[in-house]
Amino acid sequence: MTKADIVNLVFEKVGLSKSESQEMIEIIFNTVKQALITGESVKIPGFGTFNVRKKGARIGRNPKTREEVEITPRRVVTFKASDQLSEIVE
User: Fold this and answer.
1) Rounded distance, CA 39 to CA 36, Å?
2) E-strand spans in 15-67?
3) Domains of the chain
4) Long-range Cβ contacts of 53-62 (<8 Å, 24+ apart)
């Protein structure tokens, strides 16, 4: 499913115009992005939680050359599905 598919579903189910649906989806996604950029977690009840986690530097290995390479510290986004979503998916 793509963002365009989500916009079309909102258009069909809510009755907003396609441009209004597109704008609403963009606002929602941008709000989630900004929260994650600032390090906040985003919890959507019945769906799950997005968190930002810091990963420290470590030594990795290039699988092709087997050469050791330093992996720099970074921040990554993690997602934990809610129990309700996990049950539905199973």
Assistant:
1) 5
2) 42-44, 48-55, 58-61
3) 1-39 (4.10.520.10), 41-90 (4.10.520.10)
4) 53/77, 53/78
Contact 21, 7 (CB under 8 A): yes
pLDDT at 74: 95
Name the strand (E) or helix (H) holding 65: none
Residue type, 36: L
DSSP secondary structure letter of residue 57: -
* Cβ neighbours around 21 below 10 Å, total: 20
pTM attached to this predicted model: 0.78
Residues of the chain predicted below pLDDT 70: none
CB count in 10 Å sphere of residue 7 = 20
Q: How is residue 58 annotated by DSSP?
A: E
Check if the beta carbon of residue 79 is closer than 8 Å to that of residue 48.
yes
